[in-house]
Amino acid sequence: MRYRSYGIEGRAISSIAVQLDDPRGSGSRDLWRDRVRRSLAHGVNAFEVVTGSQALAEGLGDELALRDRAQTILSWRIRSAGRESISGLDIAEAVEQALDWTGLTFLDQLMLEWDVYRTLEPGAWDVLSGFARAGAFERLGIVGGEQAVDLCLTDRRFRAVKTFYDIVENPVLRRKVGEAARMDVVVMARAFFGKPAEESVLGRTFMSELGDFLSLTPKVEQKKKTPVLDFLKTTPGWTPEEVTLSCLLADPSVATGVVETLDDRHIGSLAISTERDLPGAVTAQLEIARTAGARLDPRRSGRR
Q1: Which residue in 75, 61, 45 sits closest to 143, CA to CA?
Q2: Which CATH number do you get for residue 198?
Q3: Largest CB tally within 10 Å, which of 63, 99, 140, 143?
Q4: Which segments of the chain have a pLDDT < 70?
């Protein structure tokens, strides 16, 4: 596993962060503890909790309690869950629950989904400020597409962002990600190819997108072929996912690439792939693909 800079604090973050999600509460405390332990054994020191059941939080907390807290990174997401507005009480309950269930004294990142940010009541900001002053979390972050990165550039309360990162298209987003990183915004990214509509595609997983590209999943409509991306599945000794992840990590502005798998061997192979250098031919093909993608971006071409 390779490690990268985590902000300007002098801390390090693993090149991949593992996403933890238990919306149905189907896993036991011991199961989640074992999953976290195995990830840590592969060098992963960063975790993003998307939907945290009590069992997940307790298992995660059990393992992190055994390690130097300064050497692990925990990102905890607050979700809208269809609520029309988010009150200060909603925020307080979410933060206190996360700390109580994990047994930790602070969260490294408290991440707001875009819909949460959009529906925050004025009093909720006072609660967030109070938790920040009390040290309940170190960085307030936002989850979303390009608009989330824009928010980090204009609102200095936000010092972390989780975004989808198109390795080929949207050069404007890649430029903004670089600007945000220079402002000490920690960028957590998930690579994809294709063009999802902002963060409304949260239900799309990396593997489902990968399946689309490799023609492993049925499509209602036949999408246009993208021959410039053929290198993703034709690079000898590399899986398409490994190439995509390495292309993402080629951007020094990205602190870590988020992966959604919980399979032990899968995490291990991805961790090993972060130590490998991309073949020169792949780097050249990536630039060719980006040039082709930039030509189609209306903001780059002057059409908008």
Answers
A1: 75
A2: 3.20.20.100
A3: 143
A4: 192-228, 293-304
Hey, what are 211's tokens?
A: 């399946």
Stated pTM of the model: 0.85
* Cα–Cα distance measured from residue 300 to residue 297, given in angstroms and rounded to the nearest whole number: 5
278 Cβ contact partners less than 8 Å away, ≥ 6 residues apart: 243, 246, 247, 250
* CA–CA separation, 266 and 75 (whole Å): 21
Per the structure, the count of domains in the chain is 1
Q: Return the pLDDT at 227.
A: 62
- pLDDT for res 164: 87
Give me the amino acid identity at 172.
V
Q: Are 256 and 4 in contact (CB under 8 A)?
A: yes
Range of the domain at 197: 3-301
Measured from the Cβ of residue 156, the count of other Cβ atoms closer than 10 Å reads 10
Q: Tokens 């780059």 map to which residue?
A: 300
Look up residue 301 and give its two tokens.
């071409």
Q: What angle do CA 98, 100, 103 make, to 5 degrees?
A: 100
- CB-based contacts of 180-184 (< 8 A; 24+ apart in sequence): 180/149, 180/152, 180/153, 180/253, 181/252, 181/253, 181/254, 181/255, 182/253, 183/152, 183/153, 183/156, 184/7, 184/8, 184/159
